[in-house]
Amino acid sequence: MELNNLQSQKGEDEDRLSMMTDDILLSILARVNITTATRTSVLSTRWKHLPWLLRELTIDVKDFLSTPHPKPIEAEHMDAAMASLSKAIRSFLGTPQSKCTISRLQLKLYLINNYPDVVGPLLGEAIDTGILKDLDLAFVDEKELADCNDEDMLHQASLIDGFFSAYPSVMHCLTSLSLDNVCFAKWDMHHLLFDCCKQLRCLFLSNCDMGGFSAWKIRAPDSHLTVLELGACCLGKLEVVHLPKLERLCWDGWICPNAPLSLHVVPSLTELHLICRATIYFRGFKLSDVLRDTKSLHNLTLSFQGEKLWLQPEGKQLCTVFNKLRKLSLHDIFVEFDLLWMMVLLEAAPSVEIFDIEVHIYVT
Predict the structure, then answer these.
(1) Where in the numbering of this chain does the At1g61320/AtMIF1 LRR domain appear (predicted)?
(2) Which residues, other chains included, contact 13 with Cβ-Cβ below 8 Å and sequence gap of 6+?
(3) Quick one: pLDDT at residue 1?
(4) Contact in structure between 152 and 160 (CB atoms under 8 Å)
(5) Is the pLDDT of residue 38 over 90?
């Protein structure tokens, strides 16, 4: 519901709206972005206090960009958006109005200029005083993959490391983290994500790596991580040695010619998505080798992006790892491929209830 629609309520309709309980009105405000929710405070004295009673907040820097904004987004537009976001954070976390406990804050921001030093102390104090319980944090970078070089990625990592070092309370409250265009070649990524962020449950990485196509080995037996998603991350390999609570793993786009993934102690893993447009140099791998230590996989998606199959042929070896599979999705298969190989996958999965197949057709 937009502000102009709320303002158009007159007479009896307006009285009915004002007579609603706070719970109902807060439920309405929870369905609009933070800028619209805040603007409702000027409607009347009845609405004046309501935005500051919201227990769950989403503050996204892109909601503060001018509309329409240019693409790519220019520096002055990002600066203006961060100035408005900083005011919103101060309003909800750093004023006498902000006495209500916030059970969850979803925050997306740019690490530009001096704004991290404005937002950081406000977050830290809210966490230390118990006002803020859970934080979902996304550091957004507008650079396209093709325009992002090693120097840019190292600089972004430096900003993130500096932010967490300056405001360590943020890591203690962090339940979800999203990073774009980050190279951790000079920093201990494992220590940051698993030793410091002890409450982290969801991790989303886009165009992130360890430098020089290095492998990333995750051994975190005490981690609470349940969701791990990687997009266009230039890793030599992802080796998940021990993540006991991991439930969902998605890897979209890898570069290594052999098996990109190794799974060991992942007893809770039920959902796996592997998505890749393989090059002619990609030799492929046996799926059973990757999944041999998984025991509870229920949902498997393999997407080939209309290119070559990156699976090596096999048969009965898959029966054990497919034993509990309930949903099998095969997406973006090149239309001219012989589809008989799919029968082998189905025969190895006797418990499949949903079989989802999509064929990729090139449009000229």
Answers:
(1) 170-360
(2) none
(3) 45
(4) no
(5) no
Banded model confidence at residue 15, pLDDT cuts 50, 70, 90: low
Helices 75-93, 116-128: crossing angle, 10 deg rounding: 20
**pLDDT category of residue 3 using cuts at 50, 70 and 90:** very low
360 exposed, middle or buried (CB, 10 Å; 0-12, 13-18, 19+)?
middle
SS3 94: coil
Rounded to whole angstroms, the Cα distance separating 311 from 304 reads 10
Sheet of strand 56-60, all strands in order from the earlier edge strand to the far edge:
56-60, 102-109, 132-139, 174-183, 202-209, 227-231, 248-252, 271-275, 299-303, 327-334, 354-360
- Tokens for 334, please give them: 């090149």
Phi, psi of 280 (to 5 degrees): -70, -15
The token duo for 70 is 């240019």
Closest by CA to 83, choosing from 51, 54, 108, 119, is: 119
pLDDT of amino acid 308: 82
- Give pLDDT tens digits for 128-148: 999 999 999 999 999 988 889
Find tokens 């095969």 and name the residue: 330
